[in-house]
Amino acid sequence: MAAGTRLAALDDVPPESTLLVTLRNAAGEEVEFVLVRVGGGDVAAWRNVCPHWTDVRFDAGDGATVRNDELVCKKHGATFDCDSGYCDFGPPEGATLDAADVAVADGAVHLVDDDYDVVRVGESERATGADADRGRSTNPGERLGF
Ligand code: FES
């Protein structure tokens, strides 16, 4: 049995999409991650933010696209390896997504990362606020130029 906190049932992580979860960092902020399946029945957790435009979320609450073991950014089509988080195509090519450490045991995904606590399965409070419909933050200055 894995140490850590149970996040979700493994069966809730879809094979060709993502399961959105919200964690809390040491500063008390809610941070969204997407759970994706990787080889060997394992799961990875990647921050739900595209490194190209950081106000773009991969999963806006309805699941992100996963194709050929790659997480796809719907905005400009960048692809990220589900296992490593490395972007091998698109505007942020060469970037690697921020991870949270998770482990699969007893048919469930557990958070095993001391930097975060589990808040909920689903969107952050910020995302469910006034900006939720657009799936964007209120700070357009967060965009990075590539
Ligand atoms: S916002 Fe994701 S590739 Fe441009």
What would the keywords be for this entry?
146 residues; mainly beta; Rieske Iron-sulfur Protein; 5-stranded antiparallel β-sheet; 12 strands; globular; binds FE2/S2 (inorganic) cluster; (2Fe-2S) ferredoxin; Rieske_2Fe-2S
Report on the structure:
- This protein is an all-beta fold and 146 residues long.
- 0% of the residues lie in helices and 36% in strands.
- It has one domain: 3-layer Sandwich (Rieske Iron-sulfur Protein), CATH 2.102.10.
- It has no helices and 12 strands.
- The strands form 3 sheets. Strands 9-4-3-2-12 form a 5-stranded antiparallel sheet, with no helix packed on it. Strands 5-6-7-8 form a 4-stranded antiparallel sheet, with no helix packed on it.
- Bound molecules: FE2/S2 (inorganic) cluster (FES).
- FE2/S2 (inorganic) cluster is lined by residues 50, 52-53, 56, 73, 75-76, 78, 90-92.
- Residues 123-146 are annotated as: Disordered.
- Residues 5-111 form the Rieske domain.
Just name the CATH architecture.
3-layer Sandwich
Beta-strand level of the residues, as a percent range? 35-45%
Query: Bound small molecules, which ones?
Result: FE2/S2 (inorganic) cluster
From N to C, what is the helix and strand string?
A: EEEEEEEEEEEE
Number of H/I helices = 0
The averaged pLDDT comes out at 90
CATH topology: Rieske Iron-sulfur Protein
Q: Tell me how many strands there are.
A: 12
Radius of gyration equals 14 Å
Q: Could you give the order of strands across the largest sheet?
A: 9-4-3-2-12
State the secondary-structure class: mainly beta
CATH homologous superfamily assignment? Rieske [2Fe-2S] iron-sulphur domain
- The general outline is globular
Number of domains: 1
- N-to-C span: 43 Å
Helicity range:
under 10%
Unreliable residue stretches: 130-141
